[in-house]
Design a protein that fits this description.
Largest sheet of chain A: 5 strands, parallel
Radius of gyration of chain B: 16 Å
Strand order of the largest sheet of chain B: 2-1-3-4
Strand order of the largest sheet of chain A: 10-7-6-18-29
Structural class of chain A: alpha/beta
CATH architecture of chain B: 3-Layer(aba) Sandwich
CATH topology of chain B: Rossmann fold
Shape of chain B: globular
Largest interface: A-B, 63 and 54 residues
Distance between the termini of chain A: 25 Å
Oligomer: heterodimer
Strand content of chain B: 5-15%
Number of helices of chain A: 17
Number of domains of chain B: 1
Structural class of chain B: alpha/beta
Chain lengths: 669, 156
């Protein structure tokens, strides 16, 4: 090892204008590298104003060709910015791109330190580390894998529908999996949409029908993904199609079964607990697909063994009580997760009385109440089903922006509260109060809507509501709900009696988001939303190649943003499909079978199931396509049999020595 | 303890969270102590405890290990494995007569440039209080081992 042939290393120090040169003595740094690291193989060290400029890159390319460089170190900015630039430059000059190393002397040195002498000394250490490391770098080749043109989309809300339509219209096949009996998601439950007040169903149902009839879309409703394996380009997915007890081939969607079914069940999913459905049902009239679902838990036949009214009256004999759950295997190249959100459980804020005081409603309940297709045919009434409220209080930020529950802002509640105020005003003429912490009406035409609601005479009270109670203190409060609040604009406590309270419950990650994330190999933030690759520049990709996210699964957002993300995710998928193959970073672990003792310690460490034990040979083996390159197994192997490309033990040990200046030319004693 | 002791510290960062936190600290021009020199790994789970021992034996006075917050690991859960190794390593260090406080695990998300900067400065101060490790010098008197320890012997 000590007699290894010296590599020919070039060191390039960037001034980055004054960004680096202002704090680091770049000239002496280059000179120092050329002198002190000569014995390691540094044959040239140059400094230049902007290494990333085309002139800077040409400088490197020229040296690679003329001086025969075999390794390159660029001391400049973070590798996350320009690693690709310099790797491409090396490639253009005929050098393997993985033989280039960036030493970050801007983000890690010049921008964060002030003393020039100290900063230059640290820059020397960083360069020494990079030189030592680059010598140990190995030439690597990108791994190309083919892309299956089929796509799986999980979640049939508006974001998932949008993504499915975009991909299907481009001519590629989509499997759209939805847990509920119909696609449509939360949007199908809404009455009007802000700020334009279009009826949600009017704009959503044409999209649902389009998705349901599109030749390139296979709908799998009443279904859940139970297993995912594989990697970008070739995922294998198993979907459990729960038994509907309805033969989809024969069913015409006439709904006679629903009419004849004698069993009424409270619908706490679609009707938010305000209405009834039958034991065999479609959640709403425009459901897509039109086939009903028989709810086994509540069906009289399944409970008592007699009834079969639906079967008796079905004109096409489509009811099949013997249907079993089916498991469908799919091969797809990319996956979009648009699994949406759960509503914050307003019962948790016990001082607001939801679940205890009958006339306290949640936002979703109010959506159903005001919806013409809802349980009250659009009449806004109290829980008794007949009294029209004369005064209504809308409380914002329930469970959001609250240290006791969720810290984040749920984004939609301000506009939703304004929409409710408008609807109540328009339909009942009641006095409406909005209780808000801050009014957030960003985006196109939103603030105009706020102004409109203000002009309509809705009353706004700035303050976080302390309590909703039915304990009256005064005569005029009797029989009312009293909202106790500090009006922070006048600095006084107020008690406002109203007939009805609507709680703007915030949005929460799906209760099973963590498990779903784990199933697909993506992570969740501390709040539980799926983590995007970059919060600004890559909001729909995830850290796992081939898995994209869209809509509220990524974080709270309104309908326009969900649609935009659905479309964005589909564009990313189409980009992959049209490339036909994808290049993967060759940072992978591999096992030397001769050294492997078969202890299997590594097997359980891999969260991607990339390591398998070969029984015949009694050794473990890594599937490079599944390996994500974290290196945990490399660090764990007691026999040193696993090595990780790009981050090998040799590279890191060498870098440690370099950073500590143990690689300098030994001074003669 | 020397009056003007400036500790030398090796810091390990993961590619996805803490390295990006360091980048962010840079972009935001947050100033922190210049004593830490960083090594980028793909994941804190890549951290072989021998890297820490190598750094300490090669002249570092302390080692900072950083990674994504629990639950936010790019590789799902590998930072928990880093945590397990870290806790074991601290016991080993104690056994070797090295103050376990010389090694510290810090979680920093890609958005926590400020935390990265303040934690770095705080750690440098902690090491300054502990004083130099002086192992580098002891090592200099030993024969130079340029080859990594032959692990086959262990396996055999």
């Amino acid at each position: 090892m000590s007699e290894k042939k010296l590599e020919r290393v070039g060191v390039y120090v960037c001034h980055c204008g004054t960004n680096i040169a202002g704090t680091v003595d770049v000239v002496s740094l280059a000179k120092w590298a050329e002198e002190k690291l000569k014995h390691l193989g540094v044959v040239v060290a140059r400094e230049y104003k902007f290494m990333c400029s085309s002139l800077g890159q040409e400088l490197i390319e020229k040296d690679i060709k003329e001086l025969g460089l075999t390794r390159v170190v660029v001391a400049a900015c973070s590798p996350h910015l320009h690693e690709k630039t310099f790797r491409t430059a090396a490639k253009n000059a005929g050098l393997n791109p993985y033989l280039v190393e960036l030493a970050s002397i801007r983000e890690q040195v010049s921008w964060v330190h002030t003393d020039k002498a100290v900063a230059t000394e640290k820059a020397k250490a960083v360069v020494a580390g990079a030189v030592s490391r680059v010598i140990e770098n190995k030439a690597l080749e990108e791994i190309k894998v083919p892309i299956n043109p089929n796509t799986l989309i999980v979640g049939g809300g508006i974001a998932g529908i949008q993504a499915a339509l975009e991909i299907a219209n481009a001519g590629f096949h989509v499997y759209l999996v939805e847990r509920e009996p119909s696609i449509g998601g939360h949007m199908a439950q809404f009455d009007k949409t802000f700020p334009t007040l279009d009826c949600a169903a009017c704009i959503l149902t044409p999209r649902m029908v389009e998705a349901g009839t599109h030749p390139n879309i296979t709908l799998l409703t009443w279904s859940e993904v139970v297993n995912v394996s594989g990697y970008v380009g070739s995922f294998h997915v198993t979907v459990k199609k729960k038994a509907r007890f309805v033969n989809e081939e024969l069913c015409t969607g006439c709904a006679i079964c629903q009419e004849k079914c004698p069993k009424k069940v409270i619908d706490d999913v679609f009707e938010a607990g305000l209405g009834y459905r039958k034991a065999i049902y479609t959640p709403f009239a425009q459901a897509v697909p039109k086939f009903p679902v028989l709810d086994k838990e509540n069906c009289t036949y399944f409970i008592k063994g007699t009834c079969k009214a639906c079967e008796k009256f079905c004109p096409t004999q489509a009811i099949d009580f013997n249907q079993q759950d089916q498991y469908v295997d799919l091969d797809v190249g990319n996956i979009i997760l648009a699994t949406g959100y759960d509503l914050f459980d307003a019962r948790r804020v016990s001082n607001y009385g939801y679940g205890r005081l009958p006339n306290v409603f949640t936002n979703l309940e109010f959506e159903r109440l005001s919806n013409a297709a809802g349980p009250t045919s659009g009449n806004i009434v109290l829980r008794d089903g007949k009294t029209t409220p004369k005064s209504v209080g809308i409380i914002h930020c329930v469970g959001s922006r609250d240290k006791n529950f969720n810290n984040y802002c749920s984004v939609i509640c301000c506009m939703q509260g304004l929409k409710f105020a408008h609807l109540v005003h328009e339909r009942t003429g009641a006095t409406v109060y909005n209780f808000y912490i801050d009014m957030r009406t960003a985006y196109k035409a939103y603030d105009e809507f706020y102004q409109r609601v203000l002009e309509e005479g809705t009353l706004f009270v700035r303050g976080k509501v302390a309590e909703v109670t039915d304990a009256a203190r005064y005569e005029h409060e009797k029989g009312k709900l009293i909202i106790q609040v500090e009006d922070t604009l006048i600095g006084k406590q107020r008690r406002i009696p109203v007939d009805m309270v609507i709680l703007s419950s915030g949005l929460q990650p799906r209760h099973d988001a963590k498990a779903v994330g784990k199933q697909f190999g993506i992570s969740c933030s501390t709040d539980g939303w799926f983590t995007e690759k970059h919060p600004k520049l890559d909001p729909v990709a995830t850290m796992t190649e081939g898995i994209y996210i869209a809509g509220c699964a990524q974080g709270p957002k309104d309908i326009p943003s969900s649609v935009a993300q659905g479309a964005a995710a589909s564009a990313r998928v189409l980009d992959k499909i049209l490339q036909k193959e994808v290049a993967l970073e060759p940072i992978k672990a591999s096992i030397d079978h001769d050294k492997c003792s078969g202890c299997r310690i590594c097997n359980g460490l891999c969260p991607f199931n990339a390591i398998a034990f070969i029984e015949d040979d009694q050794v473990s083996d890594i599937n490079p396509a599944l390996c994500q390159g974290c290196g945990t197994c490399v660090a764990a192997c007691p026999a040193g049999a696993i090595s990780g490309t790009g981050f090998s033990d040799e590279q890191i040990m060498a870098q440690i020595d370099g950073l500590l200046f143990r690689n300098l030319l030994p001074v003669e004693a | 303890m020397t009056e003007n002791f400036e500790p030398t510290i090796i810091g390990f960062t993961c590619n996805w969270c803490s390295y990006r936190a360091a980048d962010l600290a840079g972009t935001a021009r947050m100033k922190y102590a210049p004593n830490v020199r960083l090594i980028r790994l793909m994941c804190s789970g890549r951290l072989d405890p021998t890297f820490v021992l190598r750094a300490l034996s090669s002249g570092a006075d302390g080692v900072m290990i950083t990674g994504c917050h629990p639950g936010e690991c790019h590789y799902i859960e590998q930072n928990y494995k880093a945590l397990r190794r870290y806790l074991l390593l601290k016991r080993v260090l104690k056994g070797l007569g090295i103050e376990p406080e010389r090694v510290k695990l810090i979680w920093a998300s890609a958005a926590e440039g400020a935390k990265f900067a303040s934690e770095t400065t705080a750690f440098v101060e902690e090491i300054r209080k502990l004083g130099p490790l002086n192992w580098g010098k002891a090592r200099d008197q030993l024969p130079v081992i340029s080859e990594p320890i032959q692990r086959e012997e262990v396996a055999a």
